[in-house]
Amino acid sequence: MTFEIRVPATTANIGPGFDSLGIALSLYNRFSIEPADATSVEGCEEKYRGPDNLFLVAMRRAAALLGMTAPRVRLSIEARIPTARGLGSSAAMIVGGATAALLLSENRDPGRPLSAEERRFILDAAAELEGHPDNAAPAAMGGFCASIAEAGAPEASGRGRVVCARCAVEPSWGFHALVPPFELPTREARAALPAAVGRRDAVFNVGRAALVVLAFEKGDAALLGAACDDRLHQPYRKAMIPGYDEVMDACLRGGAAAAWLSGAGPTLMALTVGAESADRLAAALAPVLAARPEGPWRHLRLSAEPSGVAFSARGREAGASLRESSFDKGRLR
After folding, report:
1. Model-level pTM?
2. Strand ranges, E, within 224-297
3. Whole-number pLDDT of residue 322
4. How far apart are alpha carbons 71 and 68 in whole angstroms?
5. d(C-alpha 270, C-alpha 248), whole Å
6. Is there a contact between 332 and 166 (Cβ–Cβ < 8 Å)?
7. I need a labelling partner for 146 at 20 to 30 A (CA). Which of 11, 19, 83, 128 fits?
8. What pLDDT sits at residue 152?
9. How many other C-beta atoms are found inside a 10 Å radius of the C-beta of residue 12?
10. Residue range 191-228, pLDDT digits in tens
């Protein structure tokens, strides 16, 4: 039996929602796995083909949480999500590995879609490895997710660590990932943050994060634009991103309804409503991105991914259609 696993990119934080808010996007890493006599990895650089490959690390951890021995697999990776760019590439690898452990568990019907409980398990296992759930939640669940890690030590099973609520994203909203030609490792971006913040800044972010959630639930792009300012991470990280101010200004001048630093950066994310607005923004950004002295930036036009991680099973016992769980496409829950 061969499984094909597809995991979406994500954009996290969304301005004030530091480590807690995220959206799944229509850009994917794909993984092909099948049982083998010895584990092997292909489709990536040689340095990532060892046992410390994030997919394999997550698969082993999830297998341990399931009380099983990690299976030996032949793993093929097709990675479309840029690495170290703030688009959830690590979370995609980890969610993929946790999903693989579930799919290869004994007595699981290979053709059955992932259940809500299984997605919760994937999220908990992934958030444990990531250290925060903002990317793992939308990668596992799809749509817009607000999530927190429960206080205290995790249960031995790994379950119950994350509280997550999700809702569908307004279908007319377009997401524009503006990707610079350099990386910004998350560890370095986190090191730039202060150890403590003042009460005024905390209150500033709390109110705006609440409005971001309401903006997604209501499909109100104007409200989102008003709420996307931040004092916890963006002011400190933008100094590490050449072109941040110029590209952000070009987004807002070009008609973006909202714009924010995607995850830890260096990618910037802009939001438009409708095809005409998306085309106008693309036209306004093209000369700015092409002329950047650090090198041209890429512009990826994306949409929200509604379903999160998905898989197909190939073999005599299952068809080859993509398997997804059905989720409430409306309100947060």
Report:
1. 0.90
2. 258-261, 268-273
3. 56
4. 8
5. 8
6. yes
7. 83
8. 53
9. 31
10. 999 999 999 999 999 999 999 999 999 999 999 999 99
Q: Is the pLDDT of residue 157 over 90?
A: no
Task: Quote the CA–CA distance of 89 and 60 in Å, as a whole number.
Answer: 19
pLDDT of residue 331: 44
Q: How far is CA 223 from CA 61, 208, 217, 232, in A?
A: 40, 10, 11, 20
> Which residues have a Cβ under 8 Å from the Cβ of 97 and sit 6 or more positions away?
54, 55, 56, 57, 58, 59, 60, 61, 62
CATH 3.30.2010.10 is right for the domain spanning 173-302:
no
Joined together, the tokens standing for residue 240 give 């590490």
Measure the CA–CA gap between 18 and 190, rounded to whole angstroms. 11
Neighbour-count burial of 220, counting CB atoms closer than 10 A to its CB (0-12 exposed, 13-18 middle, 19+ buried): middle
What whole-number distance in Å separates Cα of residue 91 and Cα of residue 244? 24
Domain ranges of the chain: 2-168+305-314, 173-302
Say how far apart CA 78 and CA 4 lie, in whole Å: 11
Nearest to 325 by CA among 309, 304, 314: 309
How far, in Å, CA of 183 to CA of 321, rounded?
35
* Whole-number Å distance between alpha carbons of 53 and 69: 17
Judged against a pLDDT cut of 60, whether residue 7 lies above it is answered with yes
CATH class of 2-168+305-314: alpha beta
Confidence at residue 328, expressed as pLDDT on a 0 to 100 scale: 43
Q: Across the beta sheet with 258-261, what order do the strands follow?
A: 258-261, 268-273, 173-179, 298-302
Nearest to 162 by CA among 186, 182, 138: 138
State the Cα–Cα distance between residues 152 and 36, nearest whole angstrom: 38
- Residues written for the chain: 333
